Amino acid sequence: DAGVTQSPTHLIKTRGQHVTLRCSPISGHKSVSWYQQVLGQGPQFIFQYYEKEERGRGNFPDRFSARQFPNYSSELNVNALLLGDSALYLCASSLDLGRRLLGYTFGSGTRLTVV
Amino acid sequence: SQKIEQNSEALNIQEGKTATLTCNYTNYSPAYLQWYRQDPGRGPVFLLLIRENEKEKRKERLKVTFDTTLKQSLFHITASQPADSATYLCALDGGSARQLTFGSGTQLTVLP
Predict the structure, then answer these.
(1) A13 contact partners, CB below 8 Å, separation of at least 6
(2) N or C terminus of chain B with fewer C-beta within 10 Å?
(3) What is the DSSP letter of B53?
(4) Cβ B92 vs Cβ B100: under 8 Å
(5) pLDDT tens-digit profile of B16-45?
């Protein structure tokens, strides 16, 4: 079975640009969460989606948005990029909101560099 | 505000010894506490979960304890091996199933 798939793996953007990151969860998983991990720190929660609805939002500016599609894949969009947005963006999937006993399965992430 | 601290950014131990990693938290009442392993350039990998009403959980060479009075979790790797070298993250789950709050991690190096 394929794990959580994220694309692209790396990208470089210029300040002020917009970026779209994509995530395909494990087959059968209906919940997708996005995390930002700055070098040397732990992941920080951005969004959680379940059944195409936003179920949680972290302390990030409105420049960050996301959505989930009928096939449960998800996109994270970041507008007006800042240098501080440079980070590893992680997607995590789980069966549903309550099946936490199995933990979350993370993708390998998208490394975003803003120059 | 909520705060999670993991002991020392880096821990070096000799192969075969037991590694003990600490996770302390304040201003938080987690229903669950999870431990993850993260290798460079990869996403975290789930290892163990312990509930607030459990004192200890084991899985093969791994053991986790959870003391809600001390607000502390200890993560032990017995008979450590160089392949155990990685960054270990603790994560708190408040029970609302909305998000995990991660510590900054401890980088463990097991020396042969």
Answers:
(1) A19, A81, A112, A113, A114, A115
(2) N
(3) T
(4) yes
(5) 999 999 999 988 888 889 999 999 999 999
Query: What is the distance in angstroms between the Cα of B70 and the nearest Cα belonging to chain A?
Result: 22
Is the CB of B104 inside 8 Å of chain A's CB atoms?
yes
pLDDT digits (tens, 9 = 90+) for A14-61: 999 999 999 999 998 899 999 999 998 999 999 999 989 998 899 999
Bridge partners of A12?
A113
Kindly state whether B40 is in contact with chain A, defined as any CB-CB distance less than 8 angstroms: no
Of B32, B42, B99, the CB nearest to A56: B99
Dump pLDDT digits (tens) for A67-79. 999 999 999 999 9
Compute the distance between CA of residue A26 and CA of residue A64 in angstroms, rounded to an integer.
24
